[in-house]
Amino acid sequence: MTTERFAYPLLPAFRHGAQTPWGGDALARLFHKAIPDARTGEAMEASTLEGLESRLEDGRPLSALTGGPLPLLLKLLDAREPLSVQVHPDDAYAAAHEGGRQGKAEAWVILHAEPGARLVYGLLPGSNPRAAGQAALERCLRWVTVQAGDVLYIPAGMVHAIGGGLVLYEIQQASDITYRFWDWGRLGADGRPRELHWEKACDVARAGLQLSPLRPRMPKGGGVVRCLETPHFTLDRAYVRGETVLAPCADFRFFTALGEGALAQNGVRIPVRAGQTLYVPATERPIRALGQFDALISAPAMTGT
């Protein structure tokens, strides 16, 4: 790699097989990912988690470039079947109950949805999972129908579950703490139900949290639209229609192309393809996105794009 390099295409790590019994092969069909098997649920596009670290094209782990772990993690998910009902703790609860680790807030962008595809997005007003008990949890769930392009913010405490027939983009705090509320009676590879975390899930679930999916609109002629600005990350959608300028940024960004095009800066041009993620370090100079495609851009909070 030369010193002129301003963005670094990444190779994902995968979670698959028994780790993701709900996964499928859509990441290969839609984005030509070299998935390890037909039950591949997650492509860890930009990850510095131990054992699930994405890599640079020369084979080095991403952390070799960044100098250590990153505070954010980006993945693509294929939910052929519904995922378990989950909830994540905030930083304070995780610090107190999970050995000082950080909590987890995340956001989703729906990339592909089968007709009528739904997901769990919070609890019904007035519901109380602890009082209702495990047997009645499903009656507490708030289902919403989604379509490609929808953006959903999942703060800590938001009960959620990705439904079947969905492929999505997920940006999150770089934490692997998940409390599983319910798994639809599904059995694991050993023929036993997967572990639930009922008490901790009840502790952190925010029953009154009610949000709705967002549907950003493309500006006339293209451009960059801010979809989310949260305490931990920002999320933008770039509508590249010929040329779109990405402003200088004081921190790193993840750039995920949803079509074929290129990024350019100071005479250096990097081709991009659909489903490909690039790590973009901080830069004082603008970057030009070239072509006819959309892209998703995530960055740590308060950095802008």
UniProtKB/TrEMBL annotation:
<feature type="binding site">
    <location>
        <position position="106"/>
    </location>
    <ligand>
        <name>Zn(2+)</name>
    </ligand>
</feature>
<feature type="binding site">
    <location>
        <position position="88"/>
    </location>
    <ligand>
        <name>Zn(2+)</name>
    </ligand>
</feature>
<dbReference type="InterPro" id="IPR046457">
    <property type="entry name" value="PMI_typeI_cat"/>
</dbReference>
<dbReference type="InterPro" id="IPR014710">
    <property type="entry name" value="RmlC-like_jellyroll"/>
</dbReference>
<dbReference type="GO" id="GO:0005975">
    <property type="term" value="P:carbohydrate metabolic process"/>
</dbReference>
<dbReference type="Pfam" id="PF20511">
    <property type="entry name" value="PMI_typeI_cat"/>
</dbReference>
<protein>
    <submittedName>
        <fullName>Class I mannose-6-phosphate isomerase</fullName>
    </submittedName>
</protein>
<feature type="domain" description="Phosphomannose isomerase type I catalytic">
    <location>
        <begin position="65"/>
        <end position="95"/>
    </location>
</feature>
<feature type="active site">
    <location>
        <position position="180"/>
    </location>
</feature>
<dbReference type="GO" id="GO:0008270">
    <property type="term" value="F:zinc ion binding"/>
</dbReference>
<keyword id="KW-0413">Isomerase</keyword>
<feature type="binding site">
    <location>
        <position position="160"/>
    </location>
    <ligand>
        <name>Zn(2+)</name>
    </ligand>
</feature>
<keyword id="KW-0862">Zinc</keyword>
<dbReference type="InterPro" id="IPR051804">
    <property type="entry name" value="Carb_Metab_Reg_Kinase/Isom"/>
</dbReference>
<dbReference type="InterPro" id="IPR014628">
    <property type="entry name" value="Man6P_isomerase_Firm_short"/>
</dbReference>
<keyword id="KW-0479">Metal-binding</keyword>
<dbReference type="GO" id="GO:0004476">
    <property type="term" value="F:mannose-6-phosphate isomerase activity"/>
</dbReference>
<dbReference type="InterPro" id="IPR011051">
    <property type="entry name" value="RmlC_Cupin_sf"/>
</dbReference>
